[in-house]
Specification:
CATH class of the largest domain: Mainly Alpha
Order of helices and strands: HHHEEHHHHHHH
Shape: elongated
Strand order of the largest sheet: 1-2
Number of strands: 2
CATH topology of the largest domain: Four Helix Bundle (Hemerythrin (Met), subunit A)
Helix content: over 70%
Oligomer: single chain
Number of domains: 2
CATH architecture of the largest domain: Up-down Bundle
Radius of gyration: 23 Å
CATH superfamily of the largest domain: GntR ligand-binding domain-like
Distance between the termini: 62 Å
């Protein structure tokens, strides 16, 4: 059964109920595949209307914490949240945080590369052939004549995603989903007009070569150099905008 809480009538009831059920799921009181009490039972337990309970369940379903099945044996069941499903939430949350708060480019860049560099040694030791193949494929794609800025940015993200996934640690991949797939596109938007594609490709090639040769220090150094280059580009773009203003 979900944790029973005393609801605050001045606060949103569906939010409080969803929070109580979420707590039960996270604590293990409601294990994976466990059927939740019916809407009528939850309504009685929390002393609220069934529409209020229904709204709380919708919130939990939106977070992939529960799934709803119809029929005689249906109802709401605790979902097994996968890392792949969690990626999307992490990316959305990171994107919103960066776009809605005053986070400087340098701060975002520092965090993004510091997190990725934590994966380099593991990636050099654990990367699989498909990770290397993905990195090489993106390098080849980036060198194609006529590739649009948007496609180049997408390829840039895919390259770094493969580097991170090469670490073979799903927890790190999840934690870095926001850094790579939320921060990187925003960074690309700022620097795309000033960056030298050939220089980016050279950095990517050097990183891939080091990962393939299982030389984490070389990979880390090239990633650090790429970070410095990116921050320098952002400063140059900012200075030019101020000059043109």
């Amino acid at each position: 059964m979900p944790v029973k809480v005393t609801l605050d009538p001045k606060a949103a009831l569906p939010v409080q109920i969803a929070s109580a059920i979420r707590q039960s799921i996270m604590s293990g009181a409601l294990p994976v595949d466990e059927r939740l009490p019916s809407e009528a039972e939850l309504s009685e337990q929390f002393n609220v209307s069934r529409p209020t309970v229904r709204e709380a369940l919708k919130r939990l379903a939106a977070q992939n914490l529960i799934r709803t099945l119809r029929g005689a044996t249906g109802g709401a069941f605790v979902n097994r949240l996968s890392f792949e499903e969690a990626y999307r939430q992490q990316i959305t949350t990171s994107t919103l945080l960066l776009s809605m708060n005053e986070v400087s480019f340098e701060t975002a860049c520092e965090a993004r590369y510091a997190l990725e560099r934590a994966c380099v040694a593991l990636s050099a030791n654990r990367r699989q052939p498909d990770h290397l193949a993905s990195m090489r494929a993106e390098i080849h794609r980036q060198a194609q004549p006529g590739l649009s800025d948007e496609s180049f940015c997408d390829s840039d993200v895919a390259f770094h995603r493969a580097l991170v996934d090469g670490a073979g640690n799903p927890v790190l991949s999840y934690q870095l989903a926001g850094a790579v797939e939320a921060m990187q596109p925003l960074m690309n938007m700022i620097t795309f007009s000033a960056r030298n594609r050939q220089k980016i490709i050279a950095f990517h090639t050097a990183i891939a070569d080091a990962i393939e040769a299982q030389e984490p220090q070389k990979a880390d150094q090239n990633l650090a150099d790429l970070s410095t280059y990116t921050i320098t580009l952002a400063h140059d773009v900012s200075a030019k905008r101020k000059q043109d203003a």
